[in-house]
Amino acid sequence: MTVTAMLTVAPLDEPDVDFDAEIAKAIDALERFDVRYETHPMETTIEADELSEVFAAAQAATEAVDASRTLTSLKIDHFREETLAVEEKVERVEAHLGRDARTVEDEP
Predict the structure, then answer these.
(1) 21-56 pLDDT, tens per residue?
(2) Which ranges carry the Thiamine-binding protein domain (predicted)?
(3) Using an 8 Å Cβ cutoff, are 67 and 12 in contact?
(4) Which is deepest, 70, 92, 93, 95, by most CB within 10 Å?
(5) Which of 73, 74, 72, 71 lies closest to 13, judged by CA?
(6) Which of 5, 4, 11 is nearest to 25 (CA)?
(7) CA of residue 71 relative to chain centroid, distance
(8) Where are the alpha helices (DSSP H) in 1-108?
(9) Domains (ranges, CATH) in the chain?
(10) Is 10:69 a contact under the CB 8 Å cutoff?
């Protein structure tokens, strides 16, 4: 079984809150769990073997943010019968494309 999730945690406090520092706390909280993760500009992708581990990691990330109000978004793709890593999902799409699934910058 493989669980892949997309996690976004954002403090919704006063404008003077250090947004980046709070996001760093959320990401750091993931280290306490048996998950693999990769942070992107808009979300963090989490991968685990157990659904409960994803929920626990997401809760810890939310609670790590020092804000009176926090917005958390968690989107889950739960494979019950197949083990498929995040990289394999991308590779399958790239096989159909015949190229990388991202913009290729021209070199100067």
Answers:
(1) 999 999 999 999 999 999 999 999 999 999 999 999
(2) 6-94
(3) yes
(4) 70
(5) 71
(6) 11
(7) 14
(8) 19-29, 51-64, 86-97
(9) 2-97 (3.30.70.930)
(10) no
Nearest in space to 41 (alpha carbons), one of 75, 70, 10, 15 = 10
Structure tokens that stand for 55 in this block: 């929920």
Tokens of 74: 């968690």
How many helices, marked H, and strands, marked E, lie in the chain?
3, 4
Using the structure block, give the residue that is written with the tokens 């968690």.
74
Against a cut of 0.85, is the pTM above it? no
Cα separations (Å) of 13 from 27, 85, 102? 18, 36, 34
Each residue's pLDDT tens digit, 65-74: 999 899 999 9
